[in-house]
Design brief:
mainly alpha, 0% strand, elongated
Length: 159
């Protein structure tokens, strides 16, 4: 019984960290949230069907993969090059040190700088930077949707 409460506490922490991980790029939010539902599954508080666990695992996996593809796609869709995509990645890493505004603006600024290094055209660079920002925000939205779906089933299974 005591072990169940320890596992419940761990599961709740994983769910919370997973949601935070949707906003902080270095943490894979949906897989961490999924870890929370798996931990809860091994307690006497909740039991989930194998089908549900497989579906949620698939969602977490697909969204995690898309999170790496969508920002690059957004940059390229708006005419960006590999320099913009690389700049967006560097901007994201640097932006982590400046909190939420840095996390949002870092990829945009990085993509613009990267594109300016590739092609000295501010209009072109801003368009690619916007694509990077749009892709990044879409990735965050997908991760939040996945983690909140997992959280919904976590809460539903607990109660």
């Amino acid at each position: 019984m005591t072990l169940d409460y320890i596992l419940l506490t761990l599961a709740i922490l994983l769910i919370i960290i997973g949601i935070i991980g949707c906003l902080v790029p270095v943490l894979p939010g949906p897989p961490i949230s999924y870890g929370g539902i798996i931990v809860l599954h091994f307690t006497e508080f909740a039991q989930f069907s194998d089908r549900l666990l497989i579906i949620l695992a698939g969602i977490a996996l697909i969204v995690t993969i898309l999170d790496y593809i969508v920002p690059i796609w957004g940059t390229r869709k708006f005419g960006g090059s590999k320099y913009g995509a690389r700049g967006a990645t560097v901007g994201l890493i640097i932006g982590l040190f400046f909190g939420p505004p840095g996390i949002i603006l870092g990829p945009f600024i990085g993509a613009v700088i990267g594109e300016m290094m590739f092609k000295d055209d501010l209009k072109y660079a801003l368009k690619a930077g916007f694509g990077s920002l749009l892709g990044f925000l879409t990735g965050i939205g997908l991760k939040l949707a996945a983690s909140f779906t997992i959280t919904f089933y976590f809460i539903k299974g607990f109660f």
